[in-house]
Write a structure and sequence with these properties.
- The chain is an alpha/beta fold and 529 residues long.
- 30% of the residues lie in helices and 22% in strands.
- The protein starts with a helix and ends with a strand.
- Residues 114-118 have low confidence and may be disordered.
Length: 529
């Protein structure tokens, strides 16, 4: 036993980990159950799993750390023999919270069971500090991502980047400390309007007024509340911008290389589904699809007629899921109108029940829209009121009334669904009129570069201060569904696809189909008979 303890301590110390007496004892007991020639390989597997985790910036491993890793390794061994559940619907309030720590340079996942009022408060009515944390965390995440980009990261000896042009970011306090003329400075900050009709750029160290009259804008939709890279000169206390662009986006695989295989997305697993071989194999074995529709008006006879045609077409080969987004009523009159909505879902349930194969095999996910009754217009929004959905829940076993936004895990694919008229709101609040020919392309790029579903002021898109992290797109998912009432589109940046199925009744009854195994997007239309 003494030899085993020495092997454990020396192996972990070689990889920069320290063990207390209790941790060593647990590892020794685990090794005693396997052959001696496999001890070193087992320890290497345990260390590899530990390297994928954020360990709160400490190299001293606790009893809980070792027990969790051993449990995960045992679970991974069982997964090969057990059926893997590949489909999970993750409501916004179940998404794990994560914060970026500048000291450890890690994205730390916080437990949903934590009761720390200072860091992980779960109340909808947040304290004033929570509002500050919204923009602090957004800035920290974008800043650390930008500093890793090849244009801003310092050169390393023997690297291939030696000789390439590099840029250096300066904090705003550096400019505030210079009373003289300063040229060719690049600043990362948030555009804000601290005075009426006067824009500023601010970061954690201060703010400066902007002169945008001669600025050259790169592609994107620039609004108050978004983070930008501004290049220009400081003249008499005013930052005269020559060029304005977005911080560079980052591939999901790059983010995972720095932060490990922690599951920041949500779901039942501790590790990211991207690292699960069993999950990927199970996903490939199922050749199925997910159908996305928006503005499914349950009080419209023409919509029901087209839905019946849709179900007839898919009755022989049912999709894995139908994701239906609101608004679920066509007439936007004031009032709750819960009885009309209840009757609409009852009619839909009776319609689906006519197609036994779809009823038995397809999930139905309903995401509320901006005008749906009984839903507070602050994000994240709760699902449709249970009073309106009681009948359909009994009729369809596989229906789920999700929050807005919500997340879906399909095997190793990660999907984010958000129902909001973003194109209209971002165009109205842009500091520069967007190019109408590239509007949808610019919207997709803006969301990905900002790593956020709604990079707008809080008075335009209200968000619960304690739940802003739910709107975050970092690390990037595979698919972002922005269910907007405008025309449909599909755009891809940094391996993240942004789609809009478009309003079902307003866009000739068009919808989108996503094939997870191939990441293929199909544009579909129900023709007029």
């Amino acid at each position: 036993m003494a030899f085993v303890n020495q092997l454990i301590k020396s192996t972990f110390k070689l990889h920069g980990f320290n063990l207390n007496t209790e941790s060593t004892r647990i590892l020794a007991e685990s090794l005693s159950k396997i052959d001696e020639q496999n001890h070193e390989d087992t320890l290497e597997k345990i260390i590899d799993e530990l390297a994928k985790k954020n360990l709160d910036g400490t190299s001293c491993l606790t009893k809980a750390d070792i027990e969790n890793v051993l449990k995960e390794l045992n679970q991974n061994d069982k997964n090969s023999a057990e059926k893997v559940e590949i489909f999970h619907i993750i409501d916004a309030f179940d998404v794990p919270k994560s914060i970026y720590c500048e000291v450890t340079k890690k994205l730390i996942k916080l437990s949903n069971n934590s009761r720390s009022q200072a860091v992980n408060c779960r109340s909808l009515l947040g304290e004033s500090r929570a509002k500050i944390d919204i923009f602090t965390q957004r800035f920290k995440i974008i800043h650390q991502r930008t500093m890793r980009h090849e244009l801003f990261s310092p050169c390393v000896v023997s690297s291939n980047n030696i000789g390439k042009k590099k840029f250096q970011l300066k904090p705003i306090e550096y400019l505030l400390s210079n009373v003289n003329h300063v040229e060719d400075i690049i600043v990362l900050g948030m555009i804000s309007q601290l005075k009426e009709n006067k824009f500023f750029i601010e970061d954690q160290t201060g703010h400066l007024p902007l002169n945008l009259s001669d600025a050259k804008y790169h592609s994107g939709i620039y609004t108050e509340g978004c983070f930008v890279l501004a290049e220009g000169n400081l003249v008499d206390g005013i930052f005269e911008v020559k060029a304005l662009g977005f911080p560079p986006a980052e591939f999901e695989s790059t983010s995972r290389a720095y932060f490990g295989n922690i599951n920041y997305f949500g779901g039942p697993n501790e590790l990211s589904c991207k690292s699960s071989i069993a999950m990927s194999q199970a996903q490939l074995s199922i050749d199925s699809m997910v159908v996305f529709l928006s503005d499914v008006w349950l009080d419209s006879p023409s919509v029901f007629e087209k839905l019946q045609t849709l179900f007839v077409g898919y009755s022989d080969c049912p999709p894995y899921a139908f994701v239906m987004c609101g608004n679920f009523l066509s007439d936007l009159k004031y009032g709750l109108r819960c009885n009309e909505l209840k009757e609409g879902f009852k009619r839909l349930a009776d319609l689906v029940a006519q197609f036994e194969s779809i009823k038995e095999n397809s999930y139905f996910i309903f995401v509320p829209g901006p005008q749906d009754p009984g839903v507070v217009r602050v994000y994240p929004r709760a699902g449709i009121l249970p009073h309106c959905t009681e009948y359909i829940r009994k009729k369809l076993a596989k229906c789920h009334f999700a929050t807005n936004p919500c997340r879906i895990q399909f095997g190793s694919r990660q999907i984010v669904v958000f129902r909001e008229d973003l194109l209209q709101k971002m165009s109205r609040n842009a500091i520069r009129i967007p190019d109408q020919d590239k509007l949808t392309d610019d919207l997709a790029k803006t969301l990905i570069c900002q790593a956020h579903l709604a990079p707008l002021p809080l008075h335009v898109v209200p968000i619960y201060w304690n739940y802003d992290y739910v709107m975050r797109l970092y690390p990037l998912p595979d698919l972002v569904v922005v269910a907007d009432k405008q025309k449909s589109f599909t755009h891809t940046f940094t391996d993240c696809t942004v789609i809009n199925p478009g309003s079902f009744p307003f866009n000739n009854f068009a919808f989108k189909v996503y094939v997870p195994s191939t990441k293929q997007i199909e544009d579909c239309v129900i023709p007029n008979e």
